[in-house]
Amino acid sequence: MIPRRPLLVLFTAAIFSCAGCSNLPGRPTPDSIPIDPDNVTDFNLLYGKNCSGCHGADAKGGAALSIGDPVYLAIADDSVLRKAVANGIAGTSMPAFAKSAGGMLTDDQVDVIIRGIRERYSKPSSLAGVTPPPYAVSESGDAARGAAVYDTFCSSCHGPAGKGGPQAGSIVDGSFLALLTDQELRILVIVGRPDLGAPDWRGNVPGKPMSSQEISDVVAWLSAQRPQFAGRPYPNAPKPAGELP
Known about the structure:
Cytochrome Bc1 Complex, Chain D, domain 2, elongated, mainly alpha
């Protein structure tokens, strides 16, 4: 029979020995255990990994539309944001992010992104007393009228026929127009690009905001400038050898 005191010493040593195992070299720490990607719910992480590359670190200043712009968030409701994030926008560089559409995000993660953008960047007070043009319209505009609308509201910056002026570049470039749907052109006219010095629908002509119909008409005019084959400015030039019809 082991004496009582040596038994206590052995028991105490065993406890300290087991405790020391948790500090052995190579043992994973709690923060090194991989997290299931589907369980990530941090907005900053989700936005940073999936959205910031195009829309900017603070939802503005990126290559694409500033989705943190208060004017954009005033005209685009949550269903519009959810559809764009989840399903992407066909014919543009905006991909689908929801798993149901071939992306990598769960429906809950899509909702985290939408809610986070709305909570951080929406500023209803910035449009107090102002009714912005509707996000979308059911009827297309008139391109002939749109040419006159362009001359009134846009030519001072973008130059005659939209080919570039002293304050802004061409907006009829075929490659540029190929990247945007008519709906995105409408958004661009309404929201502008304040980060690039382009005003929203209220600021092109001081004291004369554009009407919804004028926006539709100038979008129709821009759409009419979109070439059938983007990037090929000479459609009648001989095709390179070996090019398929």
